[in-house]
Fold this sequence. Notes:
The protein is of the alpha+beta class and 301 residues long. Helix content is 22%, strand content 30%.
Amino acid sequence: MPAFQLNGVPLLSRSAVHRAEEIRSDAGALREGWSEAKLLRINRRGEVRFDAGALVLDAALELSAQPSPAAVFLGIEDGTHLWAVRDPELEGTLTDLRALAGTGIDDRTAGLLSTAIALLNWHDRAGFNGADGAVTAVSKAGWSRVTESGYEEFPRIDPAVICLIHDGGDRVLLARQHSWPTSRFSLLAGFVEAGESLERCVEREMREEVGLDVREISYLGSQPWPFPRSLMLGFSAVADPDQPLAFSDGEIAEANWFTRAQVRAALSVGDWSMRSEESRLLLPGSISIARTIVESWAATD
């Protein structure tokens, strides 16, 4: 079977807003744009106001007369500056990114939310420098933090690999965590360790989680995952289905080989949100790159 490629761009990788990084340090341009800027409010649970099929954005001037250090600059859309701010008192009809993804949100919404949530999650935890405990202050419109001595830190991203293991033919290995219902399965994933390449991480994680030795590792694509601040790097790899499975790290409760026909049938049912007790196999929803990877493999003849 030839190597497969992704048949589409993962949902959270489809940002449609110009980030305008060239003006993040331009205080004058930011002040000028603030007067007409729009503001996305997000509570601590990652919920936003969503009405009539669109994000609800407020006038930035409702927050402050000048760009607020509590807000983060997201970019420019049709000449209008877009910002986001944490609002613990947010009220109205609220929803979150995971729920919206199941409704078929557009690229603009996916990009704005994934960026805003990741940035605000970082700021929530970055008030002090990790080296000496010095207080940090927001700079570059929310895209960095600096100490009084001038030390600068940037938003932290945690890289993680996610891999579809197949047998080189008609079967794919899918796994279930202990906390998941018995019909819920997905791909295997894990964080990249210090001093480790992505390919070696794939080998290590697959061996630790299910005991398989993988080969023919191929990169597929990536997707931001702001829960709280990860970057998912998608791979495929081949393994021997006759090799015994071993769940040595304790994260996986069960793993099974499924045929392409079984996966196609599961994809046609829907996703995890279905919560169908009759389904033997339920797969991730569209918010996850796992769905795109599985769909791409299933579509290969």
